[in-house]
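Thread title: Can someone regenerate the structure for this chain?

I was given the following input by a collaborator and told the matching structure tokens would be attached. They weren't. Posting the sequence so someone can regenerate them.
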Amino acid sequence: QGSRAPRRPGAPLAPTRRTAAVSSRRSPRSPGAAATPASVLWAVVVLWIAGTGGGSTRMGRRRSGSNEGSGTVVVTSADGGDEARERDQERGGGEREYQSVAELWNAEVCGDEEQRKSWYAGGAAYWHQQEASIHGVLGGYAETHEPDIRESRRFMQLIRKAGTLKLPRATGDALDCGAGIGRVTTAFLRHEFGCVDLVEPNERLLEQARKEFGSDSRARRFIAVSLQQLDIEPASYDVIWIQWVLLYLPDDDLVAFLERCKKGLRNGG
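Best answer:
Regenerated them for you:
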């Protein structure tokens, strides 16, 4: 999760790189924030990768007529395991159509607790099959690692320059959400902050992160828990870094998680 670009159960209708340094205030747009041709290409590559890989559900929007606001949400299961296939058969096939995203969530995850567990189990099953390496966590596209880190550094420079984050470099505490093998913390976050806590539900990937950091004290804690279950102490972080992982959360769990993130930020975070 997080520092990875997978497909997962219920991929967004228009996949986006849901990356955020969650802030308690809005940041002004920096004059230098306009995308360069290189960053545009990088974004296109990331969006394409977000639409590839494994997962238990494929989701897209079918347009009809000339009205851009109309359409049907189409959900197709793929590699979701026996339980997912049995559920699809009970519903009349592998492809299901909904008239809105709200209708989709109500049918897919809000019906009962077992449905929600099944939703999350699909993503977990996919990551259990991936190797604990940059190649594995980037869905076989390791060549996107360097451009990603470069643009993450640029993003951090922009919010520092804009005054959104006044914290001096190499100080403060950050939380890496969906850290995987520690790819982003290794190459980026540990150089920007004094300490980084890594959150990752896949213990095999998290163990690889521990090995990667060794005795490096900048990697402070390795927390094996999913984001929907993560408790964040109030005012405990200056930055909460969320990259390529929010797409795993249904809307209600996502909103609840972001509310906890907001409370977990310090003043000026």
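The CA atoms of residues 149 and 188 lie 7 Å apart.
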